[in-house]
């Protein structure tokens, strides 16, 4: 039965008269949006989600209309009793949280939870489908070891371009490398080793040999490596058909966590769980590595907050990231009586540090990692180039420079050193002109090779007067003495 047919009977039904005026148009728009599909497919969770949460407008109206229509189909058309018809697959709570993903708290496993049980074969036996089991394990492994969220693995309409593709995975002898999706990170790939790498590898092999019939999935990494009608699933956990990888992974996550007596997180919450788990295991010291990989996006922030709130004072963790030049903020939270304020303050310190390093990253991008003085671009491995950022008025307690673009210049390591020592400077009268302590040096009076952002006179002059000039004068002095 097609959805239009059900819709026609819905419009003419007595039962729906009161709410119909409000809902009719929205259900109609939904049908236009997804096309006149088979009703079961049309009421599939991923399609409903796609429509309800797709655009910026408030999802509430669309939600109410589709829920009403959904119930109408199961109650009136299929004549199922209340007990048997499936619950509308989207929880009302999600309407609030979706609008504000930063405010939604992830669902966490218990502290002692063993992540290995997510991959335990006994949980997958009932599926009776090798391809489906491999796709789930690979997805879970990617979420846990590469911090992928559900949109990056199972993109909704219009987001296919951004999602993980077949050629985002690179196989090396004893590890694999996948694309890093974190926009806050400067690390382009994430290395996965051990069992997690094996799950991804095994799935990949099958994926290559399995015909992918859904056209939009053909370039995607996670795809239907099973036939929907061949899949067995536990109807106590869900009664709706499973069409797409996202549905299958959600279902398996629910199945396993119910069996293990754990709360069921969303697929997207797995990465916050992974971060929290690493913090517990390392007594907090993993934070620095985590930040290096992902930056400090909401899932890291939330896991860190949870960690601070659930860890007692005696097991005070090591936050090496705080040992940077932030003594002021550090003192203020130590004196804070209120535990919560302390946590918030720590989070804001880390957040600021990471945001600052994001500024550096963006500036390097503007110059394509090329030195503004000599245009040199250093290539490391795999086409990854390298540059440094020099703070013109040094960013430390003594010189009190600020961490802002207007105080930064992108340079190669050699020219960075010359700047730091005060051997070269920018001319305070013309920020594009380079000065060298040795006026015979070819660099002296040369112009910057690239100049795409505005510098602040204050910082340029500071470096010139307080670092460059003193060195130049002392060198001149030495030279005079030498001549004598
Ligand atoms: Zn250079």
Overview of the structural elements:
By secondary structure, this protein is mainly alpha-helical. It folds into four domains: 3-99, no CATH class; 115-270, no CATH class; 283-361, no CATH class; 378-483, no CATH class. The protein has 18 helices and nine strands. The strands form four sheets. It has a three-stranded antiparallel sheet with strand order 1-2-3. Strands 4-5 form a two-stranded antiparallel sheet. The longest helix is centred in the last third of the chain and has 28 residues, at 339-366. The chain is elongated. Residues 314-336 have low confidence and may be disordered.
What would the keywords be for this entry?
18 helices; two-stranded antiparallel ribbon; 48% helix; binds zinc ion; 9 strands; three-stranded antiparallel beta sheet; 484 residues
């Amino acid at each position: 039965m097609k959805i239009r047919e059900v819709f026609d009977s819905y419009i003419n039904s007595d039962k729906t008269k009161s709410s119909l005026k409000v809902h009719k148009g929205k259900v109609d728009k939904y049908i236009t949006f997804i096309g006149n599909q088979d009703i079961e497919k049309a009421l599939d969770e991923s399609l409903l989600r796609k429509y309800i949460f797709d655009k910026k407008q408030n999802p509430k109206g669309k939600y109410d209309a589709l829920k009403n229509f959904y119930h109408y189909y199961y109650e009136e058309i299929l004549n199922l009793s209340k007990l048997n018809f499936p619950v509308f697959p989207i929880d009302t709570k999600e309407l609030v949280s979706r609008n504000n993903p930063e405010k939604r708290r992830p669902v966490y496993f218990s502290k002692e939870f063993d992540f290995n049980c997510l991959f335990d074969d006994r949980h997958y036996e009932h599926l009776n489908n090798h391809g489906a089991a491999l796709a789930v394990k690979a997805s879970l492994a990617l979420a846990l070891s590469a911090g992928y969220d559900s949109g990056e693995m199972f993109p909704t309409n219009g987001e296919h371009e951004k999602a993980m593709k077949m050629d985002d995975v690179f196989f090396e002898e004893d590890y694999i490398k996948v694309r890093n999706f974190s926009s806050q990170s400067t690390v382009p790939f994430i290395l996965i080793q051990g069992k997690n790498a094996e799950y991804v590898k095994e799935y990949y092999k099958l994926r290559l040999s399995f015909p992918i019939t859904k056209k939009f999935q053909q370039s995607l990494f996670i795809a239907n490596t099973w036939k929907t009608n061949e899949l067995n699933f536990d109807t106590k956990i869900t009664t709706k058909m499973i069409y797409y990888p996202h549905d299958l992974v959600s279902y398996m996550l629910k199945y396993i966590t119910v069996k293990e007596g754990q709360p069921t997180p969303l697929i997207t919450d797995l990465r916050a769980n992974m971060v929290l788990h690493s913090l517990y295991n390392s007594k907090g010291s993993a934070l620095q590595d985590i930040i290096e990989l992902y930056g400090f996006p909401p899932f890291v922030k939330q896991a860190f907050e949870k960690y601070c709130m659930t860890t007692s004072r005696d097991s005070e963790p090591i936050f090496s990231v705080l040992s940077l030049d932030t003594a002021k903020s550090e003192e203020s939270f130590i004196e804070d009586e209120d535990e919560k304020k302390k946590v918030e303050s720590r989070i804001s310190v880390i957040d600021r540090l990471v945001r600052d390093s994001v500024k550096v990253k963006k500036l390097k991008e503007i110059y394509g990692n090329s030195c503004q003085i000599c245009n040199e671009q250093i290539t490391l491995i795999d086409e990854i180039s390298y540059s440094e950022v020099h703070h013109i008025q040094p960013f430390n307690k003594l010189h009190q420079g600020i961490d802002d673009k207007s105080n930064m210049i992108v340079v190669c390591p050699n020219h960075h050193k010359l700047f730091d020592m005060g051997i070269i400077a920018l001319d305070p009268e013309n920020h594009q002109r380079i000065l060298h302590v040795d006026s015979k040096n070819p660099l002296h009076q040369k112009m910057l090779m690239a100049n795409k952002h505005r510098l602040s006179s204050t910082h340029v002059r500071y470096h010139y007067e307080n670092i460059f000039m003193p060195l130049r004068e002392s060198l001149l002095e030495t030279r005079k003495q030498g001549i004598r």
